Amino acid sequence: MNPVYQKLELCYQSIRNKIPFTPKAALVLGSGLGALADELLQEGVIEYNEIEGFPISTVFGHKGRFVFSHIQDVPVVIMQGRVHYYEGYSITDVVLPIRLMGRMGAKLLFLTNASGGINHTYRAGDFMVITDHIASFVPNPLIGQNIDELGVRFPDMSHVYDPGLNGIIEREAGKLQIPLKKGVYIQLTGPSYETPAEIRMAGAMGADAVGMSTACEAIAAVHAGMKVCGISCITNLAAGISPKPLTHEEVKETADRVAPLFKSLIKASVAAMGDML
Ligand code: HPA
Asked: Of 3.90.110.10, 1.10.10.10, 3.40.50.1820, 3.40.50.1580, which CATH number belongs to 3-276?
């Protein structure tokens, strides 16, 4: 058996033996945005280090666990803390949790992240619904023998971020009177922040926001047949646009400041997506 698939099945069985919960939606909470999982009624929690073979996140401020809950009627599995490529894991390990949530039953993947604003109209604290991504600077997570059990060798990526789901996010943001940008996310490896020249390059390529996650996860999810959507929280202006040096503290401060709005937008959106599942 393909070793990547074997590891996935091992993790899946390890979780199944602990908690028999079938999520319909999967939610990934990015840097500083994990608090949503703390305010929901937690029907089950599994720390990543309890799962055999699971890659463990090490970044300060990232909790590492799956939380099982309901957002209104929708059964959800939430990743409170994700696995990043810059931590040194293989790209297949980075997307293993995404495949795992699909394996648990999730049909929908809702990605969130903290990102730097490249688009000159963006301000720290803005939210951006992701319309497309540039993943060309990180290894493709589908490299290697194809896992036929999950999906095809050459999956189409014309509509990674589902237009129907994006429409729901926009509608719910409107109801909550939360202004929403729309744009293209570029994933770079990190962990260093970008140089101003790299940001000019990314802008020239059509990127509106930059981060160190998300795009590879979206690719793995589309491959596995999940519907995907995502929101970036613009926590800072990207290098060269911001007049001051970038720090992880600023990223966390902004994420904390907008967390209440962010949480209400995500909850309303997931609840409204329930009918599509
Ligand atoms: N660059 C990359 N990743 C980030 C940034 C940034 O400016 N802000 C938050 N995550």
From this structure: 3.40.50.1580
